[in-house]
Amino acid sequence: MKTNLKDLTYDELASLIESLGEKKFRTKQIFSWLHKGVTSFDEMTDISKDLKQRLSEKSFVSTLKIERKLVSKIDKTTKYLFKLEDGNMVESVVMYYKHGISICISSQVGCRMGCKFCASTIGGLVRNLTPGEILDQVIFAQKDIGERISNIVMMGIGEPLDNYDNVIKFLKNVNDENGINIGYRHISLSTCGVVKNIYKLMELDIPITLSISLHAPSNEIRDKIMPVNKAYDINELLSACKKYIEKTNRRISFEYSIIMGVNDSENHAKMLSTLLKGMLCHVNIIPVNKVTETGFEKPDRKKIEKFVNVLLNNRINATVRRELGSDINASCGQLRRSVKRGE
Ligand code: SAH
Questions:
Q1: Are 24 and 14 in contact (CB under 8 A)?
Q2: Going by C-beta distance under 8 Å and a sequence separation of 6 or more, which residues neighbour residue 12?
Q3: What order do you get walking across the sheet with 187-191 strand by strand?
């Protein structure tokens, strides 16, 4: 099995280069080529044929093929269906904001968390993405749009904290000053609540933004829509969040997909306010996206407004997520599903 060079950290690549008897500065050149999106050793024009030959005996340069690309006519939001080396597919979405360009990336092929409203989990988990494959989404999207991507959200297909080691290595590599160099403060990681790894993450002390997919104001409701709640319930989750805030001094973002008849009443909003009272946090209300297979629907606008107002009146910071790319079905997991269904 050959090594994907983008699975290596800078230091690991340096050891490899040194073990081949090469000068140190070669590492910088090669790392930079890799992260710029070359698709073969041939494109590394300032590296000798001999070194490229020796590298290619034990390693390779991974590529992502753009299988499909949808561009929103409304707001330029661009959705990619990327094909990995082994034929599996993942989705990434590029979004244009005033403050810069943001990409939403996947961490796994499929997902085993089983959230009832989510398209990504329908076929289960196929496999974890490697650090290089997670990075490749940023590299090849950036190359395709020809502009610098400045923000990353790990909110695509998969549960990042269920692929912990690879995700952490990816974060280190995408942050590396010799490569794409995106600051940790410009990166968000979203989790459905794998509490064990929230604790591991806080020990690393890297200033990324943590998003928690809460989606319910009580264990009773959360148990019904998110199986992970049976492993780590709301109390355990929120107590981890409080420790996270204490330790990192960073605001947590709670995601709340609002679903008609499930978690959308004023009483639910009151319960949620009680849960989050006094926490350094922000609540992102996401009108649930209809997924062909799940049957959940979003409440009407008035109902959503009422819900938000209860939170605001209780001094819980909350906003409704603006919908981008509504004409291209931009929410993650859905394009991969529709291709699988043969549409
Ligand atoms: N596994 C991670 C990240 C991927 S999902 C997590 O659970 O956080 C990204 C976000 O989209 C999560 O908050 C997820 O719960 C939410 N989501 C999934 N399906 C959705 C849908 N149909 N409508 C609205 N939000 C959805």
A1: yes
A2: none
A3: 65-71, 78-83, 89-97, 100-104, 151-154, 187-191, 209-213, 252-258, 281-287, 318-320
CB 157 within 8 A of CB 109: yes
Threshold 0.85, pTM exceeds: yes
CA distances from 60 to 77, 96, 112, 132 (A): 31, 32, 29, 11
Which stretches within 66-194 are classed as H helix? 131-145, 164-175
Which residue, 151, 134, 25, 164, is CA-closest to 10?
A: 25
CA 330 to chain centre: 14
Ligand 1 center from residue 213 Cα (angstroms)? 7
Residues 211-238 have pLDDT tens digits of: 999 999 999 999 999 999 999 999 999 9
Biggest CA–CA distance in the chain, Å, is 69
**74: number of Cβ within 10 Å:** 12
The binding-site residues of ligand 1, defined as CB within 6 angstroms of any ligand atom, are: 115, 117-118, 155, 159, 190-192, 213, 255, 257, 286, 288-289, 291, 331
